[in-house]
Amino acid sequence: MFGFSFRQRKPNSAQTAKERLQILLAHERTSNSGPDFLPLLQRDILEVVRRHMDVDGDAVDIKLERSDDLSSLEINIEMPGSGKTALKRLG
Amino acid sequence: MFGFSFRQRKPNSAQTAKERLQILLAHERTSNSGPDFLPLLQRDILEVVRRHMDVDGDAVDIKLERSDDLSSLEINIEMPGSGKTALKRLG
């Protein structure tokens, strides 16, 4: 639709198998719209992710880009352990 | 890095100018990892977005895809009005 496109990666080889989470946000605005709220969403979304996963602060990589009519935010998170250890209890 | 790639769209023409938000999540898992938590994140993230924006239920389009080692979630939100009317008070 807009902003991003899906691109499936090649499967991991065994020795690099890790848990990763990537979150991309694209906010398409009209030129006269209000303030950019992606930085606020960034904070809230990271809080939500931490509810479900153990996330090391160093393992979060964030990129924010802005132009007149499009703001985009990319959050890449690498989990400290692989598999079940990285997931908190669900529910 | 993985999962998605950025793709900037052409600017809107005036008559189609609208506020839009796209959120993409890609969760790359090892094959022996625990349950898929993207459906839970979906609920929480939509809640977070609604804190900042007026979102009409009909204006939310969600796609969830799963394979053995990658789950992806695409949320497309179209704001009911353009510009400031769609944004709630920030702060």
TrEMBL record, chains A, B:
Listed InterPro entries: MinE, MinE_sf
Keyword entries, A-Z: Cell cycle, Cell division
Recorded family membership: Belongs to the MinE family.
GO terms (BP aspect): cell division
Record-given protein name: Cell division topological specificity factor
HAMAP family membership: MinE
NCBIfam families assigned to the protein according to its UniProt record, in alphabetical order: minE, PRK00296.1
